[in-house]
Amino acid sequence: VGAIARQLLNSVGIKVVSHVTGIGDVIMPHDPPISFDAVDAIAADSALHCADADAETAMVAAIDRAREVGDTMGGSFEVIARGVPPGLGSYVQWDRKLDGRLAQALMSIQAIKSVGIGLGVDAARRPGSRVHDEIVARTEGVDGALAITRPTNRAGGLEGGVTNGEEVRVSAFMKPISTLMKPLRSVDLTTLQEAPAAIERSDVCAVPAAAVVGEAVVCFVLADALLERFGGDSMRQLQSHFRDTNAEIARRLTRRPAPAPIS
Predict the structure, then answer these.
(1) How far is CA 198 from CA 4, 61, 185, 204, in A?
(2) CA 32, CA 49: separation in Å to the nearest integer?
(3) What is the C-alpha to C-alpha distance for residues 131 and 238, in angstroms, rounded to an integer?
(4) Which of 82, 90, 109, 84 has its CA nearest to residue 216?
(5) Preceding omega of 32 cis (within 30 degrees of 0)
(6) CB–CB of 89/161 below 8 Å?
């Protein structure tokens, strides 16, 4: 379903990628955020699908250390969607807010224990001047047109429950796998006596695999919001509605200088 949803998004120019941002205490910093292009360029044979080669090496070492002692590792990943238009979601109905829908969907993935939008929990640890995204007018193009833009995207492309036209950035945090090769204490329910937990599998870290699932989930939610916003009975109608709406938004957010008077 996620693959079908991705095709629908691709048809209107929305691209979705993901990358591993942390394994255990090896964590990539938020500032500056890893660019969409850097994530999209990650080699297919990358060990953990991490955009920072040095960080990936440290992450692999952390996983190897955990394997040696029979332990497991959790971590985090980020999903980035580029080309998402403004206005997906709802700022009125609590259960239609897009950030809430994304968080609910990602939290439904097994072992995901926390979800962040944009800065995520870091937003609670900073002053407002380092959290909120300024809105500025910049000159663009050879004709000197003024366009509204944002120098930063700390909100992760979502404000008030709707997309704002910036990249949608959502992070998910996964707990370590619960079945360890060196079992934790447990209780035998037949005898009620202490007994070691069962060893069921030998995985050490499933974060890279969870990132792939996270991509599919985000594609599904965004495709649902896209159909909700633009509708149509065919792909041609959907694409037409999408183009017309984006053209209207561009006109509203752009001002071209008045032509010079003819002498």
Answers:
(1) 38, 26, 10, 15
(2) 19
(3) 35
(4) 109
(5) yes
(6) yes
Q: Is 62 helix (H, G, I), strand (E, B) or coil?
A: helix
What is the SS3 assignment for 120?
helix
Show the tokens assigned to 15: 């691209």
CA distance to 18, 40, 64, 109, 118, per residue, from 170 (Å)? 9, 16, 28, 14, 6
Q: How far is CA 28 from CA 13, 33, 53, 114, 212, in A?
A: 28, 9, 11, 17, 19
147-156: per-residue pLDDT in tens?
Answer: 888 999 999 9
Concatenated DSSP letters for 182-211? SPPEEE-TTT--EEEPP-----S--HHHHH
Neighbours of 24 (CB within 10 A): 19
Q: 44 and 15 in contact (C-beta within 8 Å)?
A: no
Residues 245 and 169: their CA atoms lie apart, in Å, by: 23
User: Which H or E element spans position 32?
Assistant: none
Give the residue carrying structure tokens 């509605």: 241
Spatial contact of 103 and 115, defined as CB atoms under 8 Å apart? yes
Question: Helix or strand or coil: residue 8?
Answer: helix
Reported pTM: 0.91
61-120 pLDDT per residue, tens: 999 999 999 999 999 999 999 999 999 999 998 999 999 999 999 999 999 999 999 999
φ, ψ at 30 (rounded to 5°)? -75, -35
